[in-house]
Write a structure and sequence with these properties.
94 residues, 39% helix, mainly alpha, single chain
Length: 94
């Protein structure tokens, strides 16, 4: 039996698989990204929450009482916009 010309020109399975896979530098870059993501996720979980007092919108705090003070930052008196002054007739405006 002789092999047909189509059988001789077909590349082996390993070469066909190599053509479908991305280049080695691309695979290395993806692996590096996966390792960096895993390291940053681990460091973040070890560090804990960034803002422990932060609560979900519309939800109640899961642990601990409601903070007092209504969100006022101490020492920031007079920072809000005051009420507008009434304008009387005949007084010059600035």
């Amino acid at each position: 039996m002789t092999s047909s010309p189509a059988d001789r020109s077909r590349p082996p399975f390993r070469q066909a698989l190599a053509r479908l896979l991305p280049a080695r530098p691309v695979l290395g870059f993806v692996a590096l990204l996966a390792v960096l993501f895993a390291l940053s996720y681990t460091a973040g979980s070890l560090a804990g929450p960034v803002a422990p007092g932060l609560r979900p919108a519309g939800g109640s705090p899961a642990d601990g009482p409601e903070p007092s003070g209504g969100g006022d930052m101490g020492g920031m008196h007079g920072m809000g916009a005051g009420a507008p002054r009434p304008v009387t007739e005949g007084t010059p405006t600035r």
